[in-house]
């Protein structure tokens, strides 16, 4: 069964109304990265950091998967294995129905121990994280997100997934955040790569990737329907 690996970034979630840190409006407009998304910010002002991520979590809960999320979930039903490696901390892929999703930068719907990142807790309903909420070892809980300056804990797993790809779709990411941007180098040289983004032509320049310029919510459903209609995954992958 052909293996399609999809690398998604903020652009796909932005189409569902979720703010990105490059936005000129929304949640990030009134906050500096240094004040809410670094270990140093957590040390200085944990209450302020928790308040910011509690509001981000509310924003995610209000958002709904868009047509791109839904199309990727639908692709799983058509003779291929689909693995999604996302830089996003929302759960829109899962809510759309995707079953194999790896969150490189964490999951805002979970809390974790501030001392042991292996201690994870799913936040239910409108639940928030507050000062005094403790893990099982009696340490303060924090958002399960990777802040700037922290190690990406699942990067090795993502590399193994990419190394097994027969097709690679890059959706809604500028490929400017490391180490996620280096993941494409882990894919076998022969595989077909497609870049789907309003700036796809520029992003694909100097590579052998196929640029598909436009919104993810418009391009991805069309691409998936093309794959299904032409039984693309019943044919050998390029180079096999």
Quick synopsis:
The active site is at 105 (proton acceptor). With 240 residues, the chain is of the alpha/beta class.
Biggest sheet, strands in spatial order? 3-2-1-7-8-9
Level of helix content?
25-40%
> So what's the CATH class of the largest domain?
Alpha Beta
| Number of beta-strand segments | 9
Instruction: Tell me the number of structural domains.
Output: 2
Strand-residue proportion: 15-25%
Structural class: alpha/beta
Order of H and E elements: EHHHHHEHEEEEHEEHEH
Shape: elongated
Mean pLDDT, to the nearest integer, reads 92
Please supply descriptive tags for the structure shown above.
240 residues, alpha/beta, Rossmann fold, 3-stranded antiparallel β-sheet, 19% strand, protein-succinyllysine desuccinylase activity, transferase
Please characterize this protein's 3D structure.
One of its GO terms (cellular component) is cytoplasm. This protein has two domains: about 1-15 and about 65-105 and about 150-240, TPP-binding domain (Rossmann fold); about 20-60 and about 105-145, SIR2/SIRT2 'Small Domain' (2-Layer Sandwich), CATH 3.30.1600. Helices cover about 30% and strands about 20% of the residues. It has helices spanning about 10-15, 35, 40-45, 45-60, 65-75, 90-95, 155-165, 200-205, 215-230, and strands spanning about 5-10, 80-85, 100-105, 105-115, 120, 140-145, 165-170, 190-195, 210-215. The protein has a six-stranded parallel β-sheet with strand order 3-2-1-7-8-9, with helices on both faces. It has a three-stranded antiparallel β-sheet with strand order 5-4-6. Strand 2 (about 80-85), helix 6 and strand 3 form a beta-alpha-beta unit. Helix 5 (about 65-75) packs parallel to helix 9. The two termini are about 15 Å apart.
């Amino acid at each position: 069964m052909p293996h399609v690996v999809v690398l998604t970034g903020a652009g796909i979630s932005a189409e569902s109304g979720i703010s990105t840190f490059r936005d000129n409006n929304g949640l990030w407009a009134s906050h500096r990265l240094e004040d809410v998304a670094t270990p140093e910010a957590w040390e200085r002002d944990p209450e302020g950091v928790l308040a910011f991520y509690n509001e981000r979590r509310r924003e995610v809960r209000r958002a709904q998967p868009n047509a791109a999320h839904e199309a990727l979930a639908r692709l799983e039903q058509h003779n291929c294995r689909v693995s999604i490696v996302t830089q996003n901390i929302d759960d829109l892929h899962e809510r759309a129905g995707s079953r194999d999703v790896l969150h490189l930068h964490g999951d805002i719907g979970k809390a974790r121990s501030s001392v042991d990142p292996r201690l994870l807790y799913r936040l239910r309903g409108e639940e928030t994280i507050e000062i005094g909420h403790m893990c099982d070892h009696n340490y303060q809980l924090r958002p399960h997100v990777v802040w700037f300056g922290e190690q990406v804990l699942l990067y090795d797993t993502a590399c193994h997934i990419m190394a097994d790809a027969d097709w690679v779709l890059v959706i809604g990411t500028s490929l400017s955040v490391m180490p996620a941007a280096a993941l494409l180098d882990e894919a076998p040289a022969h595989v077909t790569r497609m870049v789907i983004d309003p700036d796809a032509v520029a992003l694909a320049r100097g590579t052998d990737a196929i640029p598909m310029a436009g919104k993810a919510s418009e391009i991805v459903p069309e691409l998936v329907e093309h794959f299904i209609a032409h039984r693309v995954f019943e044919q050998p992958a390029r180079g096999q």
